[in-house]
Amino acid sequence: MSRLQTQPVKERSDGENLSRVFSFMKDIDWQVFGDIFLIRFFLSFSSLVYRSNFSLLIDQNFGVSPKIIGYLISFQGIISALAGFCTGRVSKFYRDSQKELFHSSVLLSLSLLGLTVAPSLSVLLLCLIPLCLSTAVIRVSSSAITIGRCHPSKVGAVTGFGQSIASIARMVTPLIAGITQEISIYGPGAMGTLSAGIGAGLAGHMLNSVKHKPE
Fold first, then answer.
1. Residue span of the signal peptide, if any (predicted)?
2. Which pTM value belongs to this model?
3. How much is the mean pLDDT over the chain?
4. Among candidate residues 30, 29, 36, the one with its CA nearest the CA of residue 210
5. Half-sphere exposure (CA, 13 Å, Cβ side) for 46?
């Protein structure tokens, strides 16, 4: 009898948690956060769609061994780790998260374009460096912009929702990457470049809007 009584309580608790999520989405001021969330989606999607089939792309483009592909993946991890130590200095240099986001998104677009049309492994290796650096800077600058716009009492919730945008992009990436690769071997890279270009354009528009905003 006690089990039957406690089960509905648990169901109500789960339902309340789910309702809190949807109610929070309704409470978000999309006029304030809509542009930065959209930028984060396009920029996250751009790098994910290229990296989703990275091993297959390298194999088809250059015909290298799995050992070389493993070295390239490890190289990305090392550069990404080193880039994490540089993000603080980059932020100090810019002192403007929106300008930092715009420039890093442009760098991401150029990196993906270079990776897509890279004629050799050496060129691809060079293009991986700005790719890893720009993604690290984008992650920091976009989070700084998001936090700067929200009320202190909602920083954790808004930041968590912003992080979930990358999860949404990661969820749709494999399907789109597979479709574009069926069309062309350069499909994922072209799609990533286009997505990064859209994100860079939105970041530039956001930067100009702030510059021309009356004080």
1. none
2. 0.81
3. 82
4. 36
5. 32
